[in-house]
From TrEMBL:
Pfam families reported for this sequence: Fer2
GO BP terms: P450-containing electron transport chain
Similarity comment text for this entry: Belongs to the adrenodoxin/putidaredoxin family.
GO molecular function, one term: 2 iron, 2 sulfur cluster binding
Domain 2Fe-2S ferredoxin-type: 1-105
UniProt keywords, alphabetically: 2Fe-2S, Iron, Iron-sulfur, Metal-binding
InterPro entries (alphabetical): 2Fe-2S_ferredoxin-like_sf, 2Fe-2S_ferredoxin-type, Adrenodoxin-like, Beta-grasp_dom_sf
Lineage, uppermost ranks: Bacteria, Pseudomonadati, Bacteroidota, Sphingobacteriia, Sphingobacteriales
Name under which the protein is recorded: Ferredoxin
Cofactor requirements of the protein: [2Fe-2S] cluster
Source superkingdom: Bacteria
Length: 106
């Protein structure tokens, strides 16, 4: 199992546990867990409405790709900890990380 923490927009923190072989991205897991994620583009890294802030564990993740970086560069309030949930595969790299949901509201 992969365990990580999610801090919702209202500050509520919950632990999330998903199977290692789930073969989804973080956006899909958050939506399935009933978090209010807009994800307008459906996970194509074209809208940034699934943006999260990695509060702990950023060093564990693969660096953002060019398409993700281009999208984040267009956001005036994006920080070095900002990532698009649609671009983060659910795998052992997510173990123990803490993310805060920060994308647009649905």
């Amino acid at each position: 199992m992969i365990n990580f923490s999610v801090i919702d927009r209202d500050g509520t923190r919950k632990e999330v546990e998903v199977p290692e072989d789930i073969n989804l991205n973080l956006m899909e897991v958050l939506k399935a867990s009933e978090y209010n994620i807009l994800a307008t583009c459906g996970g194509m890294a074209l809208c940034a409405t699934c943006r999260v802030e990695v509060e702990s564990g950023l060093e564990q993740l693969q660096p953002a790709g060019d398409q993700e970086l281009d999208m984040l560069d267009m956001l005036p309030d994006a920080a070095t900890e900002s990532r698009l949930a649609c671009q983060l595969r659910v795998n052992q790299q997510l173990e123990g990380i803490v993310i805060r949901i920060s994308g647009d509201l649905a």
